[in-house]
Write a structure and sequence with these properties.
This protein has helices at residues 37-48, 88-98, 112-117, 119-139, 173-192, 214-223, 243-256, 273-285, 290-295, 315-319, 328-342, and strands at 2-7, 16-21, 24-27, 54-58, 78-82, 102-105, 144-150, 196-201, 203-205, 228-231, 237-242, 262-265, 270-272, 297-300. The protein has 368 residues and is an alpha/beta fold. The protein has two domains: 2-206 and 242-265, NAD(P)-binding Rossmann-like Domain (Rossmann fold, 3-Layer(aba) Sandwich); 214-238 and 270-310 and 327-362, Alpha-Beta Complex (UDP-galactose 4-epimerase, domain 1), CATH 3.90.25.10. α1 packs across α7 and α6 runs parallel beside α8 (273-285).
């Protein structure tokens, strides 16, 4: 059995594609801080499935860091390949050479702020790249193709809880590109009965995440004695899942997920961005004073669209036997400790701490 895991760039710097076949897994890592989950999935697969070859395919984009995989880099069942999912010939050759059976596709550009200024690049990587992958996987007769999407495809809601049948109403270029990619993937099930599974996850946090995402950004700013930059009112609410819980969710989907199905991976734990900042200020700056906490909060203009909430039902995942286990207090303390020592795992990490994104990350991207 070979697994292919490609990590591109999602929140936790590894946008991944993972395929599994008897003894092979490939990971492509272009960590957009959209995905710290991909690196955690790879580490778990390498350590817990020694009879599988885990092939990590990584573009090494601006938010990628191979240090996230140092614990498995010398393992006999781990293989690293640098490459781009937007290169059809390369991807086709990879499937032919590695004989991949299962694919976990995390690969994507994922930072919402950047997507407003680089919508074409997001469409190219997330939609075209996914089309390249699913077409090659279908031609190679892969046994299961898991596409990792996002709760943001639903759009925002103040009261309605989304389930997997809820309509897609994305409100930003990133979410729109993920919704479009979902349609490409789903069409291969509808037309060919190709065994695809789609997941939609809440916000992931934990070690390995590129600090453009809100939790590592706030942690890193506070650890450098700088203020948390809060977009708009700070009343936007988000659900946060710890990385190891997400790993368990993906392993559950690999084992139990049914072809043609969509699975929400979420949690009932929710807090506003302003409350998140206060929690981190309390833990890092050791203060409970409201006025002192406000001192460490800098409210800046909001981004062009900022959904208030993404409430999701994860009942389908619960029926498969998965539920989140790591309490917020435990997960966030581990995350804070990790960034004390590992902030400089990315050479350009300082740029990620700016209130709004810069344009450099895509300067070298050639869109045909």
């Amino acid at each position: 059995l070979t697994a292919l895991d490609i990590d591109l760039s999602i929140g936790i710097d590894l946008s991944s594609l993972c395929c599994i076949k008897a003894n092979n897994v490939v990971v492509k890592s272009a960590f957009l801080l959209s995905s710290c989950s991909a690196s955690h999935v790879v580490v778990s697969l390498v350590k817990n499935y020694p009879n599988y070859l885990i092939i990590n395919l990584d573009k090494l984009d601006y938010c990628a860091s191979l240090k996230n995989l140092e614990t498995v880099s010398e393992k006999e069942n781990y293989k690293f390949i640098q490459g781009d999912i937007c290169e059809p010939h390369f991807i086709k050759q990879l499937f032919e050479t590695e004989k991949i059976d299962i694919v976990l596709h995390f690969a994507a550009q994922t930072h919402v702020d950047l997507s407003f200024w680089h919508a074409l690049e997001f469409t190219y990587v997330n939609v075209y790249g996914t089309n390249v992958l699913v077409a090659a996987a279908h031609e190679a007769n892969v046994e299961k193709f898991v596409y990792v999407s996002t709760d943001e495809v639903y759009g925002g809601s103040t009261d309605q809880e989304f389930d997997e049948s809820s309509p897609k109403r994305p409100t930003n270029p990133y979410a729109s590109s993920k919704a479009a990619a979902e349609c490409f993937v789903q069409s291969y099930w509808e037309r060919y009965q190709f065994p695809v599974v789609i997941t939609r996850s809440s916000n992931v946090y934990g070690p390995h995440q590129y600090p453009e995402k809100v939790i590592p950004k706030f942690i890193s700013l506070l650890q450098q004695n700088r203020k948390c930059c809060i977009h708009g009112s700070g009343l936007q609410r988000r659900n946060f899942l710890y990385a190891t819980d997400v790993v368990e969710a993906f392993l559950t989907v690999l084992k139990e997920g049914k072809p043609g199905e969509i699975y929400n991976i979420g949690t009932n734990f929710e807090m506003s961005i302003a409350q998140l900042a206060k929690e981190l200020i309390h833990l890092i700056k050791k203060t409970s004073s409201e006025s002192e906490m406000e001192h460490w909060m800098d409210y800046v203009k909001d981004r062009p669209a900022n959904d208030m909430r993404y409430p999701m039902s994860s009942e389908k995942m619960h029926k498969l036997g998965w539920r989140p286990k790591v309490p917020w207090k435990e997960g966030i303390k581990k995350t804070i400790e990790w960034y004390k020592e590992n902030f400089h795992n990315w050479k350009n990490a300082e740029k990620a701490l700016e209130p709004f994104p810069v344009t450099e990350p895509f300067a070298q991207l050639n869109v045909p």
